[in-house]
Specification:
The protein is α/β, with parallel strands linked by helices. The protein is 42% helix and 18% strand. Helix 3 packs across helix 10.
Length: 454
């Protein structure tokens, strides 16, 4: 009975959140967030923060940081977006989604204060708090109430005016920067880096993945301007050696304070090895300011416990079905390399759906190029999100990207898409057929539910 009530209550809160400006309607502002923090007693200052931004790999890197910190007996909060299945996934406590009771209780407690901010915004002729702003406030409030020893906060979009930037990172983490959200952040990696560098503040410590030269220069200048120490992958730390292992890979990592050979990471792909190096350096910077080598056994334990749902996740076997939220061309490219390295597919059936604000044409072109030798079958579909590109429209883009019309199966229903794709993989004349569901995280989340992963 209580479980039913909890689910209903979480759904009711979610409905309230969805009634606000949708997640893709970004308000480039900070004052409402600062006002909310002020009224709530500054929960954003109640715990140290590791702040994570970048274009690709943010969530996987945040989850690795979380696992390493938990191995060191620290109570963690992790704020990430978007979610796969339930909104509670965005606010994690000790590696698990916040429990329903806490989620609903803290929302009920902060709702009147959010109303004050909403009323002030309305009186000033501005839009009230957005969906993302409201969830971010809720996350900070839950972490302060728990309380946590450290919060890993993942930026929603950009950096300077992202709602999460009311938090000041003791460690600021930059995952690889590439082109995405160019209409909002700029159409060069340099411009995007300028936006993302907004999380680098005095008192912090910059840890950055290897970056395009123009982006790296922006980050370096920002670090020097703010007087923070900085470490870059490929210069001070990185992956020394990487070999494919059963269920993932084995890594020899050079950190900023020590060397860590023989690390088993249960995730696939060179990009996840890179994320691991960045996560390790971030934790070294947080624990001991980058001057103390971590305990090797605890590092092994932390990485061994890492999961990353919806990122090259095997959701079923016979045939193998992979879920991967490759939400931009670069994400498609690095995932394809990992698929070919880690799985022995001789044929791969593709299922794709994309949200309207994404570079669908670029993703389709990359998908065709990446899997030209493995796939003749592609299913064009859509998630239930109102932001999804209609399947028929996406199919037209696929033809323009060079896919053959006879190879396409087009359906608006994801269950029909999965049934068709699994059938095609099973009908493969050899025994190396598989299915890859990719594109928007909303599509991957729905596929995960349909296939029993949540």
């Amino acid at each position: 009975m209580s479980n039913t009530f909890d689910r209903f209550s979480v759904e009711s809160v979610y409905a309230e959140l969805l009634a606000r400006a949708p997640e893709n309607k970004i308000e480039p502002r900070m004052e409402p967030m600062r006002r909310a923090m002020e009224i709530l007693g500054e929960p954003n200052k109640a715990f140290p923060i590791i702040h994570v931004t970048g274009t690709n790999g943010k969530t996987s890197t945040a989850r690795m940081i979380e696992a390493l910190l938990r191995a060191h007996d620290l109570r963690t909060g992790r704020y990430s977006s978007p979610h796969l299945v339930s909104v509670t996934e965005r606010i994690g406590i000790d590696g698990e989604p916040v429990d329903n009771e806490t989620f609903v209780r803290i929302w009920d407690e902060i709702r009147p204060y959010l109303q004050i901010v909403d009323d002030e915004l309305t009186a000033a002729g501005e839009n009230r708090l957005t969906y993302f702003e409201a969830v971010t406030i809720l996350g900070f409030a839950i972490f302060a109430d728990t309380p946590v020893d450290v919060a890993i906060i993942e930026v929603g979009l950009g950096g300077i005016t992202d709602a999460t930037n009311v938090g000041d990172g003791q460690v600021c983490v930059l995952t690889p920067i590439s082109l995405d959200h160019t209409d909002l952040l700029g159409d060069t990696t340099e411009l995007i880096a300028q936006e993302k560098a907004g999380i680098i503040k005095p008192g912090g410590f910059l840890i950055s993945a290897a970056q395009p030269a123009d982006a790296a220069q922006v980050l370096l200048e920002k670090a020097r301007e703010t007087g923070v120490p900085y470490r870059f992958e490929g210069v001070e730390f990185g992956v020394e050696n990487r070999t494919v292992a059963v269920g993932g890979q084995q890594l020899d990592l050079q950190g900023i304070a020590g060397r860590y050979p023989g690390i088993l990471l249960p995730l696939h792909g060179a990009h996840q090895g890179q994320n691991a190096a960045v996560a390790l350096a971030a934790v070294e910077a947080f624990i001991g300011g980058g001057n103390s080598e971590l305990n090797h056994e605890l590092v092994m334990e932390g990485f061994g416990a890492v999961t990353s749902p919806g990122r090259l996740e095997v959701i079923r076997k016979a045939p193998t079905v992979l879920l991967d939220a490759g939400h931009n061309p670069e994400g498609i490219r690095v995932s394809a390399a990992a698929v070919k390295e880690s799985f022995g597919f001789t044929k791969l059936v593709l299922v794709i759906g994309v949200l309207a604000e994404k570079d669908a044409r670029g993703m389709l072109a990359e998908l065709r190029e990446a899997y030209l030798d493995l796939s003749q079958d592609i299913c064009i579909t859509q998630s239930n999100s109102p932001r999804s590109i209609p399947a028929g429209e996406l199919a037209t883009m696929a033809l323009e990207a060079g896919f053959n019309e006879e190879d396409l199966f087009v359906t608006e229903r994801l269950d029909d898409a999965l049934e068709w794709a699994v059938g095609r993989a099973e009908a493969s004349t050899d025994f190396g057929g598989g299915v890859l569901v990719t594109g928007s995280i909303t599509l991957v989340g729905e596929a995960r539910m349909l296939l029993g992963g949540a």
